[in-house]
Amino acid sequence: MATSKTPVLPEVNFSDWGDIRYLHLGTEWVQGSMKLDAPFEIELEYVQRMMAWLLFADPKSLASRHAMQLGLGAATLTKFCRKTLRMRTTAVELNPQVVSACRGWFKLPADDPKLRVVIADAAQEIRKPEWQGTVDALQVDLYDHEAAAPVLDSEDFYADCRALLSEDGCMTVNLFGRSSSYERSLEKIAGAFGADAVWAFKPTREGNTVVLAQRAPGRPKREALAERAQTIQTRWGLPAPKWLRVFKPLNPTLTRPSGP
Length: 260
Hints:
By secondary structure, the protein is α/β, with parallel strands linked by helices. It has helices at residues 45-49, 76-84, 96-105, 122-125, 155-164, 182-193, 222-236, 240-243, and strands spanning 13-17, 20-24, 32-35, 66-70, 88-93, 115-119, 135-140, 165-175, 198-201, 209-214, 247-249. The strands form two sheets. It has an eight-stranded mixed sheet with strand order 6-5-4-7-8-10-9-11, with helices on both faces. Residues 1-218 form the PABS domain. Pfam families: Spermine_synth. Keywords: Polyamine biosynthesis, Transferase.
């Protein structure tokens, strides 16, 4: 009979460069960052794009909504959702050292009635009945210490993610890695959600490509998205109007964004 082994978890450390603090898992690869003089802002471009689900959410409803992060990183998304958007926020992280690092070095607040950090394997945790249909914004950024490929990247995993979402919920995923295939990952997401539910950004300079999938497919008019994007920039300082230049719905017959 197969026995489960306790995973060997990497060492957690950080480095400061100017006014930016970076999280590392025992390598030079950056797992997250924080502005030392603005710890609740989002510094990295791809992490800002992980908030693209805001384009599909009524800003007035956010305080009553639930955000979940799979992979805590430097707690950037968790802090932004809880402190800035004032949402109920859950983060699932495998490595307890990462949680300790975020609380000690990256200004992650203690758990409270609207913030919960769960130390668990995300693949197992998200199958629990308590989470099904409860998440309005799911943000998936699961990488090992080498940042080589997503740790969880199967169609079954993305189907489990879809089951977490509320009827109008969205998932954003960071796809990046030296040995990963963006096209294959995109096909798996489209297989779980349906191609007509998927949107994608062009890659950042660093090679991160953020993909968004809706629980219920929708194609808002560009004018409506532009208006929402301006609201996002005005209220929360995220460069959402720029997103619309590089953010397109997937062509249902192809595994790449449609449109010019």
